[in-house]
Amino acid sequence: MSAEPRFSGDLSNSETFWRDLSPWLKERGYTLRARYQPDWKPSWSKKKGGRHLFEDGHKASAASILMDAVRVSDGKMVMLKKISVPDSASPTKELKMNELVRSGLLSMDDPHNHCVPVYEILQVPESNTIHLVVMPFLRNWLNDLGDAPFDTVGEALGFIGQLFEGVQLLHHNRIAHNDIKFDNIMVDSSPLYRRPMHPINSERRYDWSGKESPRSITRHPVRYYLIDFDLTAHYNLESGPAQERCGYGGDRSLPEFKSNPEGQCDPFPVEIYRLGHIIKGFLMTSLQMDEPDKARNVKVNHAMDFMSPLVTDMMQDDPKKRPTIDQVMLRFDEIVKGLGFFKLRALFWPDFDDEENFVVRTLWTKPKHFVSQIINILGRYSAIPPTPSPPSSSKDKKGGKKK
User: Domains of the chain, with CATH numbers?
Assistant: First the structure.
């Protein structure tokens, strides 16, 4: 029977799970926020103002399965994901992905590996089925970094390059993610903040001592990750072509899914199509929908028109006509080499349709962008941000600042 809230903003039933685990987690090297400590009392109870004005008034957004924590050894924020493993002999696919990493097929230290790393897996005491997967604290690449995910064309190309690189490593190892879509891509945004930001209210510092806002990706490069490996599969191509039944995954706009919904398909060309769909729907246009015929007032980002030939080929109706990931990478590298100095530093999305945005662009966006690019040029920052190294999984060594 669920307990009734004692006051507005009290812990929910899903939150009490984490509060009860807090002492044990501290022993394992992870601390939870004040709200999830056993002796917590709401700081706003005797003060003026709503609970959202106080740090401990902010609930974890998905406490039934996810909880933010701080790794004691280096002060780095991590994410704890609660999973149920009814049979240890038959682990979930997410744990199988971790087994591939631990087997040596994939390496967490490989700079080309963009699968979200698993630092460790903790078995909850007095439970044979509940485990906690410890991962980096990541944020949504599209919606959590301000009004637009990128300031410049070069930053967008850095994102695309990392995405292609991560999928290429999987395909080289006969692995298909099988659910690549915009919300299965995350970013480690920690380099963008001078001080750690709050996990729920990203406009505030972790300790609630002041406001915090993201800095330039060009000057503070970030690393992007693929998440959600529930459908990921490792194929034995020696026994025949990889096959999956049509209709799997979140992006079901593929031509082969519609033409032969009960048939089989090759998951690797499916992956290529889905990559192209992300670029077209979120970087080249404002489509952001699986069904183009239902879209209204679609805007086109002409700053990214140079990607059109490659994306068109990636989204061919005939899967056999789509390029492989190696061919995609070769063509992408050639495209990047052909772009000039000013193009790479141009505004990522320069066009505005309505009058209000035109005013904002003229009086704020363009002057701000010009000043920012002068700083980047004088500081000799690369127009395409370099990919940061993979994070350290060690709990014993104190992490240091990356330059």
Answer: 13-36+58-136 (3.30.200.20), 139-378 (1.10.510.10)
